[in-house]
Structure formats: structure tokens, C-alpha cells
Design brief:
Elements lengths: L3 H12 L17 H9 L53 E7 L12 E6 L13 E3 L5 E2 L1 E8 L12 E8 L8 E7 L12 E6 L2 E6 L3 E6 L8 E5 L5 E6 L8 E5 L3 E3 L7 E7 L3 E11 L5 E12 L4 E10 L13 E4 L1 E7 L6 E5 L4 E4 L6 E5 L25 E6 L2 E6 L6 E6 L2 E7 L8 E6 L4 E7 L3 E4 L2 E12 L5 H13 L2 E2 L1 E2 L1 H7 L14 H20 L16 H4 L2 H5 L14 H11 L3 H18 E2 L13 E2 L32 H10 L2 H18 L17 H16 L3 H21 L1 E2 L2 E2 L10 H4 L1 E3 L6 H15 L2 H18 L29 E6 L2 E9 L11 H17 L11 H11 L12 H7 L2 H11 L2
Amino acid sequence: MKSSRVRGLIVSLLLGIVISACGGSDSPVSNDNAHAQSLENNSSDASSSSSSPSADSNTNELPPPDPVFVGESFLVGRNDDACPVYYRPFEATINIPIVVNDQRNTIARNPNITSFLVPFNRGPALYSTKGLIVRDADGNRLPAQFETLSRWNTVHPDNCRQPVRAVYAFVHATPPPGTSTIWRIQHPTSTEGENTTMSITEQSSPAAWIISTGPARFTIRQERFEGLSKVEVRQENGSFTTISEISEDATAAGFQLDHNGSKSTTTLAPWYLKLERAGPQVATIAARGFYADENGTRDLGYTIRLTFVAGSSTVKIDHTYYHGAVAGFQANEAANLTRIGRAWMSIPLSAPISNVAVRAQTDIQNISDPTSSVQVEQIKRIPRDAVVNATNPHRGSTETEEIRYAITANDQTTVSTGGATHPFLAVETPQGAAIATVARMAVREPQGLRYNSGLNALEIDFTSSLIQVGGGRGIWSSAAVDFAPTAPDLQLRASMLQQWSERPLLGTPHITILNPTGIAGPYAAVVMPPYRNIFARLQTIHENTRGYLERARITGIQIWPDLPRTSCDADFNCPTVLGKLYEGGDNNYWNWAKVGLDEFFRTGDNRFIYDFSLGEAITYAETLAIRPDHDNLEASSVTGLAPCFGNSRGNSGDYREGLNHRRDNCPGDYSYDKHLSLAYLATADRRFVDFFEEAGENAVNRFGFPPVDQTQPFLELTLSRLSTQRLETVVVGAEFARDPIASQRLRDALQLYSDFMLERVLINGHSCDTAGSGSNSALSTGRCISSIGWMMPSAYDTIRRMAFLTNNLDLMRWLVMYPVQAAKQFTVLDANGLPDISKQHDASTNNSLNGWRTTYACNVSSAGVDDTTCKKNTTLENNGYFYNDGMVAFLNAFGLGLAVKPSDPNRLCQWLPTTYTAFVDNMSMSEVNQEIWGKSSGQAFSFANEALAAMTHYCR
């Protein structure tokens, strides 16, 4: 273990700025110089704070070596933290501002829960979350609970011996709609238990959790997972009335799947069933297993989470089913498909209904005496020739159905054009009412809600009609259901429920607090010329993209959304594109969701994540990622993101859904999963941890543990595209994995891979790409073919976080050397040794003067890379020159380098700001995809936030 002095040095170098946890303004992120001055005044080395010693400075201050773990038990009024409470005089030093922005909301929130990330630098040396509290702008304490997401020194989140680095808070409060405020996280010298109406008990026979939220009580059986085994609502006199209960012999209740016959979650015990959160404000039960037939024969996998909130009678349901089978080892061998007839949750009612209310958009339809099922469904939209029928008159045509939804009641179906933008279905009985909605149903068909009169059950259709699912793919849905003793105001309650399922209130830490932790960003705390126009452009692109998704009707079979590489505005074919089914998305290229998440953390404005970033991140993790069955991760070489691009017809010409499983082209994507860790930090949604653990484990299987010099082609441990994608999953898994075994294995692998790569491919600032050679060592091949310049920001960021997490000083040195080699080998240097952008397109027989090129190659010997032999490659596309969007991406890597070493020994500030802003300002509309997210715009701006933050802070 390195000394705390060396660790502190590495952290200081990696972060650039280290701001004490007491810093930060009382106002949201401002755009004035006063804020910048405040940032500078608050700068200090928190690791050397005398009032907040590091973990190693005084071992007597550490918590007990063998803390008492409470496991699954729950003490009402305390945070569910297994680590012993550890009080220090933190009141003066922990004062973290949290931006809570609900300005774009117009209705009160119910449940009134706000959640957000709470980052910590090394200074406070906080080991347990039990002493933390939240205060509003007036100093009032707010009921809250906390959970640890990661700890310093890259240990398991539950390791009580290391200080916390990232915590997530659930606060039982919201500001008034249409307002924004600042709350603060503090740690007084003593803390009373949190106020709550929630209690959780375990019933031994039959084994079950009983979660009482105050207005409702929910029973969830453990011996057979069926979801909501029993639902009771509190009457005015305090007694409970049962509104729903699944009987012992029920065969048509709980979670069910129509896949080659009837399957359910009740006939095969889940391999994972846990009370993941145990209040006092929020409780979550997670189940992971396999649907099975009545004989217990295993079928598709599932992940289900049920979330309950104190003081609320709602349940949020997150459901994903997986087709885990793959055909083979290669990326294009995840092509096998299966057909799903329907997937749904059934909630049986304990009394006959007196009314059913249903809505798709604005008008509520009431049915007091339904003779058959009542249903609202977003109908699946496919080409008319997709129907496999010899008499189909549309075979071979390009005609398609319009976007449609349907409402069915009393055997009458009304089909309407458009999306069911505000869906809900409510049932009323003498015992109470149940109201349900499905999140984003209008853009992720086919989904629906129904009342089944034959079974007297409310049903939530995660998949409402036949669809195909590609190999290793999953289908996710989010829904919410509310229970009440009497029928509430349906219009208002349905809107609140949809808001809870789609746009829960998410806050963010002030960036002067977030930046020093290195967990995200860095972000610019002040926006100054000449960078102001760039941030404004990012906002414009966001708004234009939202409009483009609506205008181009980019909805898809449970895909949300699936943007094209270029917009029709840039391709000048909008009349053609807007008139047909959209099926050609391939925005796996430079995923743009990261920019929206970055803008959320930078500004506190959560529209950037509500509009599409979080939906895109969930879709990537649950639907587009290659996800073999959890016990067969070695079945695919591309566990992680490898969505195919092209169209749904493929080379054969026949239409096949495949749920974005585009045929004939299956590259690893260029986004490297970067947005997924940010989405997890913004939400603490454990579905991302599921992905981190499984994809990380697969990456370790592929790279080897330990790796060897000779491997299979395209499994090399380098910074090639596919390898960096895999490395990214190891990095995020090492930091955020919750499973103790997976966490340890991924952390060990990260340490091992760091040293392994330094000896073989990360040499003296060079990044040697051996992809396809079957060799993990440029020393063995004798050649260092550089990683592509415009792809390096993402790879550089991965190495930056690897160095941070492993405290690897040699890896840190490589990060400092890379900008030196990049300037020397990719660019043309002027008389002062600085990159000269005016020479961008020069051609010369003198290699050093031969323009700015995207790759180069050098000879390698046992002594390392021979810099004197390096030569630019001019035989590639565009003669090896950078396109403008690729040039901006390449320049972002220098910005990341500046953030690593803000003392700027490489003189980046002497040329980078001027060159960067000039390039962005001069990019044509076509080069930024008409200011709509796509391949070129995503590539250019994927790491713009970090680069702009570094230039803002350090280039004065």
C-alpha cells in the first residue's frame, strides 16, 4: 500500500483542483467572475486538513475493525447502514450544497421524494452515513436516508474500514413546484433517528417481508416470488382493508410471460432475492431469476425491482426480461431471435369493481359495467409488408402504419393516431381504488394497461403484443401503481403517478464539491468567454434533438430513442424520412446521452436527463447491451455494448424487428458505456450495477486473469475501440460493484491490467494499438501503431480513472506524457514547439511537417518505442487528415490532459483554448448534424464538458 502522502499527491495531480468540502456558493451554478473567484478562494488540499485527518494518519480514529453488521434487519428511524456510526466534529467541515431544481414542474409531487448524489473528497474521512443529515434553505432538517455507492482506495462499498467517496440520498421532501433551492448535507456531533412512517418486518411463516409505508401495507412473499402478494390500505379509522391478495393456489397472478407457452416467476425460486434498500424513506426489493413453466423448466431471465416510499401508497415497478442465448463468440453471432407474446404483472382485486377509468392522452373514459377487458395500448408500429402472409397486399412495399394507440372496452376498440402520452387505468372497488401507469408508453410500444374482467385483475403490460427479441438482449419497462381507500382525483393522481415513474425529482451536488472527488467531470463552475457560446450550443442541440425526435416520429419497438447517425436535415431527405417507418438508427456511434448527463451535473437543470439521457442509458444497459444469462457470461465475447447498425431488413431484404438488433453490421460501439456510470450516479438505479458486474466479469474472462502476451485477435488488452469498451466495464465495476466477490475480482483485475498495459502498450506516452494481431504487446510485434487520435478522449478518460482508482503513479506519468507525444506525432509543431493548426492540411515529404493526421506508427524494441522512427499514416480515409468533428474530439483529449496536470508543463494553455474555440465556432451546421445529436455532434462534444472545465479553471 502506498503511503497517504503519495496517494494524496496522485489525487491532487489527477483532480487538478481540490476544494474543501465546506466550499461552494449558496446559489446554483452562476456564470459570473465572482463565482470563479470564490472557487479559487476555496481551493485547498483537503487531504492535509488538520481537522479532517486521512484514514492512515491516526489509526486510533478508525472505526472498530470488526463492526457489527445488521444485515437485512431494520431499525425504524435509522439509516440502513451496516457500518457503525462514527462521530467527529464535522459540523464545520461537512456543509455540502445540493442543487434541487424543480422549476420546469407545475404540479405537486406525490410521493414527495428527492434524491441525489453526495460526493466526498478525502478530507472528511467519513466512514458511516448514519451521522449525515439534510437541511433545507431555512435550516430545517429534512427526513432522509443514505446509502454508500463507493469508497476511497477502491474498496467494496460496504467496507467500513475506508472512508466514503460517493453517497446517495433519498430525502422525504420536495420544494414547491416551479422553484429551485439549495439544500445542505451536514454531519453534527450527534444525530437523532430520522422521522418516518415506514416499518419493515419479516414474517417467518410463510416467509415474507411486510412493508408498512403509513397509508398502505405491502406483503411480499419470499418462498415464491410473485410480486405484491398482498396489498392493504389504511382507512380513516386506522384499520387496514385488503384491496389485493394473491391466493395460495393462484395461477394467473404476479409476473407472467407468454413465451412458447405460459411462464411465471412463481415456479422457480429466484437466484437473487434481497431487500436492497430498507428505509427509513425508501425500500426496494429486488428479484433476479428465470421465468419458468409449471414444471419449473427455466426460460427467459428477469430482473424485477419493487420500490416503496414512506408516507405513500405507491409502488414503482422496474421490470426487465432477457433473452440470454447467443449463437457464438463473435459480435455478429448474437443474431438468434425469439418471439415474446406478452409479458405482464397481474394484480388481482379482492372485490368486484364498480368502475374502470382509462385514459390515453387527455380525456378520461369511465366504464361502470365492463363486460370484457378494458385496455389502453400503444400499438406496435411495423411496416405493412412485415406480416408474413402470402395474401398480404403490402409485401415488398415501404408503406407503414402511423403511430397509433387503442382503447378497448366492452368488445369495442377505438384506434387513434398518435401516442398515449398520459396513460393510466384505474379500477374502483368497495375496498378501495388502484391506479396504474406505464412510463414512456407513447414512445416504447407495444405496452399497455388493462382490466381483466375474467380474473378481476388490474394488469400492467410490459409487452402487450408479439415482438421479437435479439440474442443477449433485454426489454425493460417501468411502471407505477397507487392504492387508495377511496377514489382520488384521477386526473391529478394519474399525473403525479406518471411523474413519479418518468421524471422523479433528481438533485445534484454543487460542482465545486463534485469536482474534487473526481467521480464525475470536472465541470466548469463558471462560464466565461470564449467558452460561453459552446455551452449555449450544447443547449441548442439538446432542444433541437427533442424536437427532432417528435417531428421524425422516432419511436420504436421498446427502443427509446434510436437516433440516426445523421439527421434528415443534414442529409436533405426529410420528406422521405418523415414519411416512413424509422428503422435505421445507429447512434451507438458516440452516444450523446453523456453530454446531457454532464450538463445536468454542471447546471443542476434536470431537463437534460429527463428528456432522453436517462431513458437512453437504461435502454443501453437493459436492451442494447449483450447480456448472456448471468451464469453463462462466457457465452459472448461482447458482453457490454455492441449494438448493430444498419437497418432492420439487412442484406436479405426481409424485415425483422430484433429490437435494434440491426443485421449484417455489428461493431463495438464508440461510446464506451461512459454515460452509464453517470446515469448510476444521478439515480443510484441498481440496474446499472447489474450491468457493471456482469459486463465487467465478462471482460475479465476475455482479457484473462492474469492476461498473457498472446491472445485471440480482437481480445487484446489495449486502447482499441472494443478493448476500451471492455476496460470501461472493469473500471465502473471495480468502483461500483455491490457483489463482494465480483467487486474484489474486478478491483484485482484493474490493478493487474494497469501494470500489464504499462509494460506492453502504454509506453512513454504512446498508446500502441495491437488490435487484430493476437498480441498484447507492441514489444512482441515490433511496431507501435497508434490508437486513432479522434478516439483517444474516451480511452484517455478510462486510463485517467484507472490511475485514480488504483493509485498507480506510473499510470499517472503516462497520462502526463500522452499530450507530449500526441502533439509531437499527430500534429505539426511551430517554431516554439506548439501545435500549429494552420498546418492542419499541409502535405510534405518531411514527416514532422506533413499535416495533422489521425494515426502514426513507430518501431519498437526491448528498449521501448523509438520516437525517431515514428511516421504519420497518410493512406487512410481522407488521406489520414482529421475531419472537423474528429478534430474537436482529438482536442478534447488535450483538455483532459490539462485536467490531469493543471500546472501545465506541456504548455497546453498557450495554444489549446484559441484552437479549440476557433474550431467549434467554425464547424458548419452539417458538421454538427444541423445541431442535432448524432455521430458527428456526439463525437465532437462527448468530452467537451471536461475539456472546457480544464481550460476555464487553468488557462487564465
